[in-house]
Amino acid sequence: MTATTTTTGPEPSASPDLSKPVGDPPLLEVRNLTVTYGGTVPAVRGVDLRVEAGQKLGIAGESGCGKSTLALALLRLLPATAKLTGEILLDGEDVLTMKWGRLRAVRWAGASIVFQGAMHSLNAVHRVGDQIAEPILLHNAKATPAAARRRAGELLEQVGLPAARAQAYPHELSGGQRQRVMIAMALACDPRLIIADEPTTALDVMIQAQILRLIEQLVADQDVGLIMISHDLAVLADTCDRLSVMYAGRVVEEGPARQVYAEARHPYGRALSAAFPRIGDPASRRAPRGLPGDPPDPAALPGGCTFHPRCPVALDSCATEDQELREAGGERRAACVLVDTPATDDSRNTA
Ligand code: ADP
Ligand code: MG
Predict the structure, then answer these.
(1) What pLDDT shows up at residue 15?
(2) β-sheet bridge partners, residue 194
(3) pLDDT for 101-119, tens place per residue?
(4) Does residue 60 contact residue 230 with C-beta atoms inside 8 Å?
(5) Within a domain: 164
(6) What is the percent of the chain with per-residue pLDDT over 70, rounded to a whole number?
(7) What number does the ligand 1 atom closest to the CA of 79 have?
(8) Does 296 contact ligand 1 (Cβ within 6 A)?
(9) Which ligand is nearest to the CA of 70?
(10) How confident is the model at residue 285 (pLDDT cuts 50, 70, 90)?
């Protein structure tokens, strides 16, 4: 079923439909999702994703590729100018056609988001413990303020902070501590899926490593699903099981994380991998190499394969022929015409 919906405004019936379809659907299955801003800016174009409980999916891509738009779309948190089509099946239930009341129940408890730059958006005038307690009180009519505060303390301990830090104001915490608070908040209603949008981008490398290990530990302990978004393919390869690489609003490559990082089949995947080498990885002996140019403006996408103007191995036909994701060996898929060409051309490995 395909749905078209805007993202704001209560729907007429607010009664939550708690019935579940029979069978055993994946935790999250996204089918052919598109997001268009203002009718003219296709920021996400036909994305398919799948996440099982306990699985960690990384979404990689440069700034402007549509990663945050995709993350926000999953819980219909985009502005009303954004039009969504496709299916977002959370435990088999389509988020795009959910009634408003059900959607409110699903946010935080079904899936929760650590927003990009979220650690800067804690409310400066409230203690962090109260901010963690807020979604608990909103989502559980039986929770008392005292119980919610107690739970906030437990959550802080779970993310490696003393429960007493609940009394702190955001300015009394370091960047890494504030990001831990954001993760505690995301865990507050025991979600089954956590979406973390660039959770470590603003942190120095030591703290980044600590936060990544914390997220990994929480996913392992609680058997939740994780979608982690980053421009840094090396970080995702270290943390995630599977990777989807986005370019100009589309997934152009997907597969097991380490395989995609070590030998991407799409020239864009290879360029991202070369730009973010991993310490201790054989590929890191090469100096990091940037990719010239920028991703295209979604309002003015180039014809053919959208990557062709920056592609070091583009064929003439790439300027006119768009490419779909196709089997690319092992469990990988890539949207590149060269995937079908026998790998005898050395130039394919120079991206
Ligand atoms: P990423 O997270 O990968 O950096 P975004 O999802 O933030 O990418 O942005 C994807 C594209 O959508 C960009 O071209 C951006 O300018 C555009 N965009 C993002 N938010 C809006 C909005 N509210 N209105 C119009 N365009 C937007
Ligand atoms: Mg973003």
Answers:
(1) 41
(2) 112, 226
(3) 999 999 999 999 998 887 7
(4) yes
(5) no
(6) 87
(7) 23
(8) no
(9) 1
(10) low
Does residue 348 form part of some domain?
no
- The token duo for 276 is 């973010």
- Phi, psi angle pair for 130, to nearest 5°: -65, -35
Instruction: For residue 140, tell me if it sits in a domain.
Output: no
Phi, psi of 210 (to 5 degrees): -60, -45
Nearest to 149 by CA among 160, 165, 161: 165
Residues in the chain: 351
Domain coverage including residue 90:
28-110+191-268
Q: Report the C-alpha gap between 76 and 127 in whole angstroms.
A: 28
Of 340 and 162, which is predicted with more confidence?
162
How far apart CA 262 and CA 270 sit, in angstroms, is 8
CATH code of 43's domain = 3.40.50.300
pTM for the full model?
A: 0.88
| Beta pairing partners, 82 | 37
Instruction: Kindly give the distance from the C-alpha atom of residue 77 to the centroid of ligand 2, in angstroms, as a whole number.
Output: 14
How many separate domains does the chain show? 1
**Residue 68 CA to ligand 1 centre (angstroms):** 7
Pocket residue to mutate for ligand 1, from 44, 47, 63, 69, most atoms within 8 A of Cβ: 69
DSSP state of 295: P
Close Cβ partners of 167 (under 8 Å, ≥ 6 residues apart): 127, 129
Residue 204 lies in a domain: yes
Q: How many helices (H) and strands (E) does the chain have?
A: 9, 13
